[in-house]
Amino acid sequence: MTESRFWERAMDRAIVPGYSRIGYRVRRSGFAADPEQAALKGRTVVVTGASSGIGEAAVTGLARLGATVVLVGRDEARAEAAGRRVAELVPGADLAVRRCDVGSLPDVARFAKELRAEQGPPHALVHNAGALPRERAVTAEGHEVCLAVHVLGPHLLTRLLAADAASCARVVWMSSGGMYTQRLPVDDIEYERAPYRPTVAHARTKRMQVVLAELWAEHLGDGGPVVHATHPGWTDTPGLRASMPTFRRLTAPLLRSPEEGADTAVWLCAADEPGRTTGLFWQDRLPRPTHYRATTRESRPDRAWFWRRCQELTHPWAGECGGRGD
Fold first, then answer.
1. Does the pLDDT value for residue 10 go beyond 50?
2. Phi and psi (nearest 5°) for 48?
3. How is residue 255 annotated by DSSP?
């Protein structure tokens, strides 16, 4: 192991150095090359959860690379306000705002159908929409909210927008370092049996995202869109301030900016290097392990069951998706 890799692992295992702005700023000097200035010119990128925080910062970074960016938000007025802020930072940015509640499977199907009719499949899809309810809640379709927003909605959107390998090139899942604490909960994906804890619900579904990114990469295979997951580190966002105020207060001096949190997701959409691999988990432009403890590892049968379950739960809204998501 090289000395640099030793220190990389040490920072990650210690958590605070690796996940905070310290880690980002230490690593920045050794970052893989930035994408070319107009790397995404003429290409459409869809970003969910684009109304603030990391999502808005990702939109800004993608717009600077020349992309046509579709800002997707549950609240259209908030998404439009984010679009105006981005336009001030990136004069001439090509932006479109669309309303979609990613936790609602019928709404995801509607949005995907309309987008394909208007613009065709996007070049890249960034799954950034998030939720952290304080109590267990379910959607109109009866799914636990974190599962619906982080897993089922993005899975369906991938089926509907990333199935056309000739058009869609990149799919990026915005996960979280909290996923390291959890195993794939195939015995209770709806979080019905154990006492509900918001941070656990969040971390469980973030583990599911990482597994799904790997499974999508396997399913699409050679010639399909590149699929990666990433985690942004500890990032100062409106969502963090609202859902974890004590954590935010204690760690405020260490938190990354939204731009730092979004950096790797933007890079994954645009740079050449991540296009040569698929199914990896990234932080700060480097692939990372997906497990640090043996107790969080899932079996191949569990992974296969989880894929089938996601397919079953989204099937009624999948429609025609070119066969690649089936």
1. no
2. -85, 160
3. P
3-state DSSP helix/strand/coil % of the chain, to nearest 5: 50, 10, 35
| Cβ atoms within 10 Å of 19's Cβ, excluding its own | 26
Could you read off the pLDDT of 278-302 as tens digits, one per residue?
999 999 999 999 999 999 999 999 9
- In the chain, the N- to C-terminal Cα span, in Å, equals 41
Helix (H, G, I), strand (E, B) or coil at 212: helix
Question: Residue 260 is part of which domain span?
Answer: 38-317
Q: Where are the beta strands (DSSP E) in 108-225?
A: 124-127, 170-174
Query: How many domains is the chain built from?
Result: 1
Residue 149 domain-assigned (yes or no): yes
Judging by DSSP bridges, how do beta strands 94-99 and 124-127 pair with one another?
Answer: unpaired
Query: To which H or E segment does residue 279 belong?
Result: none
Classified as helix, coil or strand, 254 is helix
pLDDT digits (tens, 9 = 90+) for 213-249: 999 999 998 888 999 999 999 887 877 787 778 877 8
Question: Is pLDDT of 37 > 70?
Answer: yes
CATH code, domain with 231: 3.40.50.720
Residue 158's pLDDT band (boundaries 50, 70, 90)? very high
What DSSP state is assigned to residue 281?
Answer: E
235 is a domain residue: yes
275 located within any domain: yes
* Count of CB atoms situated within 10 Å of the CB of 86: 22
> Is the alpha carbon torsion for 129, 133, 136, 139 positive or negative?
negative
Residues whose CB is less than 8 angstroms from the CB of residue 56 and which lie 6 or more positions away in sequence, other chains included: 50, 82, 85, 86, 258
* The two three-digit tokens of residue 212, written as one number: 């799904």
Tens digits of per-residue pLDDT, 39-79? 999 999 999 999 999 999 999 999 999 999 999 999 999 99
